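W.,

You were right to be curious about this one. When I first looked at the sequence I had no strong expectations either way, so I just let the prediction run and decided to look at it fresh. Below is the sequence, 259 residues in total, followed by the output.
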Amino acid sequence: MAEITYKGATIYYEVAGEGEKTPLVLLHGFLEDSRIWEPVVRDLQKERQVICIDLPGHGRSQGIAEIHTMKLMAEVVREVLVSLGKEKVSMAGHSMGGYVSLELLRNFPMIIGGIVLMNSTPVEDSVEKRKIRDRSVDLVDRNKNAFVSMAISNLFSERSKTDLYAEIEILKERAGEMKAKNIQAALIGMKNRTNYVEVLRSYQGQKIIIAGKQDPILDFREIERINGVCGCEFYPMENGHNSYMEDHKDLTKIMHFID
């Protein structure tokens, strides 16, 4: 992996593939890292360059602050792109990675050639969801590993929990390596994020929303409604919150259509 230094922290990223299409940046979600994209990269690198980044406090990247705001994480992504000399990219973000992609679109729209929200939403946390984030911060203090195990298990459909048991255990093991303070920094950053509906609605480039019909985290019908407001291409998946694992084949087909 390559690296940059941002605000004293080492940020890791990986570049693979080449082609005439606009480079594609893949951003993982909360408690994940860039390794989740390995099967997707294998499929896409034959036709375009793919850039995968470990967001602050995740994977090999170091934490930067007590709160990893979406703006801070978007600035990190921007710094990686500047270091690579990229003037235009397409973005695909899973869950929290989608929030970071939207923040990048808000602040640096000129570099965004297209955006994909995968199991993500342009809407801010509800009051109840913010309370859950606060309780999660407290639980991480008391028992980090219990939180990690519960949080990751809750992402999947019931069928996937059985079919992908080994893969889910790997996710838990990797997430368990994260420092508690970095888990909390991301939780608070997500809790405090803003509403991006107008940012997405007004964007004139290619925009795609991918949603799981059995997503335990994001209500499918609500995402479908939001999609109607924002005018995105909409692709329903059959399973839960982690479409890159649960619906890999269908997801990869869609990814080939990103400009």
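Here's what jumped out at me. Residues 2-255 form a domain with the Rossmann fold fold (CATH 3.40.50.1820). And, maybe more interesting for your project: The beta strands are 2-6, 9-16, 24-27, 50-53, 89-94, 112-118, 206-212, 233-237.

Coffee later to discuss?

I.
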